[in-house]
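The following block was generated as part of the benchmark described in Methods. Ligand: alpha-D-glucopyranose.
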Amino acid sequence: MNKLLSAIACVIALGTPVTAQEISKLEKIGSFASLTRNEKSITLSCRDNSQVQLTILAPDLIRVRTSFAKSIPARDHSWAIAKNDWATPRWNLRETPEAIFVSTDEVEVVVHRSPLLIDFRDARTHEVINADESPMMYDAKGALAEMMFDPSAGMFVAAAKKLGFDEHFYGLGEKATRLDKRRERFINWNSDTPGYTEGKDPIYQTIPFYIGLQRGIAYGIFFDNSYRSYFDFGHSSQQRAWFGAEGGELNYYFLYGPGIKKILGRYADLTGHMPLPPMWALGNQQSRWSYYPNTMVEEVVRQYRERDLPLDVIHLDIDYMQGYRVFTVDSQRFPNPKDLADKLSRQGVKIVAIVDPGVKYQPPAKIGPPIKSLAPELEPQDQRYYVFDEGLEKKYFQQRKNGALFIPKVWPGESVFVDFTLPEARRWWGDLHRAYLDNGVRGIWNDMNEPSDFVDQTGKNQLDVVSYDEGENSTHAKNRNVFALLEARATYEGLERLKPDRRPYVITRAAYAGIQRYSTMWTGDTNSTWEALALNVPMFTTLGLSGEPFVGSDVGGFIGRANGELLVRAYQISFLAPFCRNHKVIDGYDQEPWRFGKYYEDIIRKYLKLRYQLLPLLYSALEEAHRTGSPLFRPLLLNYQDDPNTYNLDDEFMIGDDLLVAPIVRPDITSRLVYLPKGVWYNYWTNKKYPGSTMIRIDAPLETVPMFVRAGAIIPTGPDMNYIGEKPFDPITFSIYPDDKGSASTTLYEDDGASPAYKDGAFRRTTVNVRRAASGYLVSILAPVGNYNPGARKFSFVIKSAATSTVVAVADDGRARMFEVR
Ligand code: GLC
């Protein structure tokens, strides 16, 4: 009986969130004993044989690596890190009887000897930016073992930081919560969570990177640990913010701002910059679980064209396959996939196909030769399934500790998963995508990669699954959270190899830090409710502050029944989101833009057309995200870090620096309060000017989402288009919104939108400056930078502050010029 009770207690305790109080039960790292230094780091040895290594990677980037009760291991590996070859900056070391000081030009790290506490300070002002509240901790005696999801996985490690009285917290990737995460706590454990609502945690992704902000000064912490991890920003403590993990190393990077944009740039350097996807990824996308057969797909596209709604992409969900066998096509439903793709392509529409990680478990029904065909994806697979056969023969599938194949259940029923930590397996998986590319598919949608397992969604069924992990042969406790990252990597690298002259386009549901190198993302299975819609802005902006700039959500929501009003309001956010895709669950009411009647369809058309007109702006902002790490879809906070009114403002957003949008996320609302930050703002629809640093009430009937342009901005737009590439961007119209001094400026980025040539300088960056002149405005177009030539075309200019402004058109011939506009 006792045994039974303790077993029940154990089941209840396992995986319950560890609190700020509970981590006090942990052992604290011993005090300082001695130190060694080399050219780029110092290693501190402690009285309990622990070691702490501080590595100086850049003046604003310090790595802290701690090994408890033993020396720092020689093996040092991370799937997230993109850059290891840092040029060590100037730094120096100073010791006093109390502390050790490591300083760069920007950061001063102070290590107090006893107890061992680390402070990060501003090197110029010596102001403390982030400080340990307790020495780093580890679970030497198994104090938290009963609370751990997998007590055999490793030892709990944690760092506790002083919580500032008005410190704000941002980031952590995909969390179903608000922008400012102060006083909240989170777990990272990639989980398939359909129909999640606000507060549900964890959901699909793990991005253990956050930004702290206090007194306008920001820092970042990237805790690069893929075990089940915890972040607590003062949930149940007024003093302590802490993070920890159920195994692995206490290994984190401190990134110093003080600007958030600078931190995002460094984080991108460290974990990888998002490459540019093909420009058509910014086009409108339509999906459904599932459009089939081929004639149904054609009908959806026909409706789009007939109704004059722009469309670039249609998605094929799981029913295009033979019995959910990935890398196959059901020839009843899609008798000639290549023809279909060609037909759609002539109408400007590209196909994206879903690829799940679950490979149908299918021991051959008949003994005989495996399928040998140049296009096995089109052959019947009911006797033998080539992907299963090949993967099994090559031993690429995951196994349990006892050597048995790991057989989870996903859409095909019993399935197997690839061990994506094996380089050869990644290569094989990537090469399998020939099956799609040969049939005209242009992008790959990686779903179910938490990985989802219908046997048990918590991950319990997977605990003894072993992955190669660069020879460490570690278990799922370490590898679950990086499974999707490595699948996306295999996919991206495969697409790159198969079509080197094309930019890969990959979409993923689950992720770990670094995912932006390989994939864009969407926020999974949302509900068609106003509550879910209200999460769009905080979630997209949070993802943008977490190194994932290319984000979006199923427009209108995935599960349940939308209505015209909800769908319109959803488009009024997503028409500016990088990923704009309407998608619906198999048994949900139809949700294409025309399904609720002409009244709503007409409004949706207006916003989709506006999206296409704004492409020059959106693409320029996307390139900025690629280059600098600053997302295009931003919280106001990112542009106005000095303004505390923005610190928890998450029902407005900005596109780049210039466009501010205040969407409606509740039913039956026709006006709202809008906060306008400092400066002057133009109502996008009326050109009426408003002084900033204030809250205004503005009309927002269903037809009109409140939108404002920053005075001083120039918004470049192109012509109406049904799809990207239908026409050249000619003319490009520059709408000028002068500030109080009569100045405005912008920089337009362009390239071929399709090939990787932009990486070698094949782009054009055109800067336009405007200033007030005697009678009107003087426009100067600077000589463009870069060696991409968009061909002959016109630029037009219009002044938005003038009651009547003539449009002035000039030829863009790649030369600098200056002229007047009134
Ligand atoms: C998952 C995906 C969803 C997809 C469905 C069928 O629920 O999140 O987008 O439609 O699987 O593949």
